[in-house]
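Troubleshooting log. The previous run stalled partway through. Resubmitting the same two chains, unchanged.
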Amino acid sequence: MTRKCADLGERQLVRKITKILGITEKDDCAVLDAGDRYLVWTTDMLHRETDFPPAATPWQMGWMTAAVNLSDLAAMGAEPLGLLVAVGVPPDAEIGFLDELFSGLRDCARRYGTEILGGDLDSHRELTLTGSALGQVEKDLILRRRGAHPGDLVCTTGSLGSAGAGLRQVLDQGLAKTELAKRLLEPVPRLVEGRALARSGAVTAMMDNSDGLALSLSDLAEASGLGFVVREDLIPVSAEVEEAAKTGEDMIGLVLHAGGDFELLFSVRPDGIEAAREACDLTVIGVAVEEGVWIESGGIMRPLLPKGYEHFRP
Amino acid sequence: MTRKCADLGERQLVRKITKILGITEKDDCAVLDAGDRYLVWTTDMLHRETDFPPAATPWQMGWMTAAVNLSDLAAMGAEPLGLLVAVGVPPDAEIGFLDELFSGLRDCARRYGTEILGGDLDSHRELTLTGSALGQVEKDLILRRRGAHPGDLVCTTGSLGSAGAGLRQVLDQGLAKTELAKRLLEPVPRLVEGRALARSGAVTAMMDNSDGLALSLSDLAEASGLGFVVREDLIPVSAEVEEAAKTGEDMIGLVLHAGGDFELLFSVRPDGIEAAREACDLTVIGVAVEEGVWIESGGIMRPLLPKGYEHFRP
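Second attempt completed without errors. Output:
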């Protein structure tokens, strides 16, 4: 039988495609040599059915599109140079909807010191927003997914599970403006933290955790050719998430597998942890090891399966 | 009654959006200052229903996506640094379809000396391809839509109407591989010509004619704050288009209003026409005047209405 995309899932498909295109590096952004610095460059497509819960406001959809692209720049320690956005809009969308959507795009860009510089407008059956972000970073400061060493401390910014708990509130209660819902729909790209961490000289590898902690740890481990052990009791979780979770198991599911948090996940040289702490608020959640991705809970170590958000796997 | 996007049409909507975003320049690409040169940067979204006739092959859809983005770089006299592509694919698409699609993207990029550097893969109800192209151009060589002066000669590369005639063959006969169909589905980004024209120092304003000659002349006129007179008998039309057209009137409709040709449309200082001719094959089709866009045919001048391909106007 002829195989379909849905038979393979996003990650296997991406492996096939990168082979066709001859892409060998797997970072949050493509990296271009620009003489005295690197340009870093990314694109992300969001659309109505897959990425925006029904309650999301058009302003939030615009914000989110800019934010997820800027987050990829943050993950490499870069500062933004600008954004482009290609927007496909259903012809029966109201003009006011479009006003709000583009205001959200603009407001997010300006909040992080940059601008929407141009784009493309299309008529499209399903609302589709493709952002592209361009940034720059000094050559000696760039942070990639590869570079971690066994013994490095693995750290995260912010707290985890908020976007997952927010999604539940948005879907169950149709609320788009609660604290948790905003963590999902108005994500904060960690550009300030990413720059400060790059400047600290203490970070060995970095990415954003947009696909959830479990999948992101697996990606970081694969890129660096090693493993991680994280301690469940160290993972930072907000009081709102604790309250929203039905059980302890439910909570850890949100934290490990739900995705959408857009925090930075990174490894730090053991002797650099003070420098990293001075750069930004962070939490040490574990350590890099020779191989495997493990979670330790109550003295018991178990493998942390790379389960998280994946397209083509409904 | 609340107004919808379809009530305004693409061009009015773009005017609204650029106002929200604070964009004042209207060129084929966004322009970023990079010290000794400019970076030029564009994005274009193509999708199944709007941009790809049913007979188009997946390889052609990939090629076309890369080509239309590269054409925007060509229009500013830039050389490509790379492409990104965000692809939304229906989950029931066959793996072989994806292979061909990405081969088309890769082949077009490599044909013009560049690469697909990265991207995003999504599950999407309608096949949607958003490309983004980044290029560079020396500061004194960049060509914009503004800059033409009355008396400049208006010129085009290649011949016009081929893509429009090709579309008819593709739709009527389901043929995707005839000479004319390939002009539509395998467009040639005029990167070599664009660079050579920029280096000639003779060109005062430039864009690609992807929306058709009439609409593109109107855009070039508006950006430069002047007008154009073109002579119908000077417009280059291939023998294939002459043969495919039902009548003379039908042919001139394809040439003026059909779009999809991706030739360069540009103005040349009168004393620079020899230098421009040395740069590339071109045809002088008219002259820049103080105001209005006019077409002269058989000694009669009539206004050339800005009618062409426009989204939200079925």
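Takeaways: Chain B touches chain A through 69 residues (CB under 8 Å). Chain B has two domains: 5-138, 153-303.
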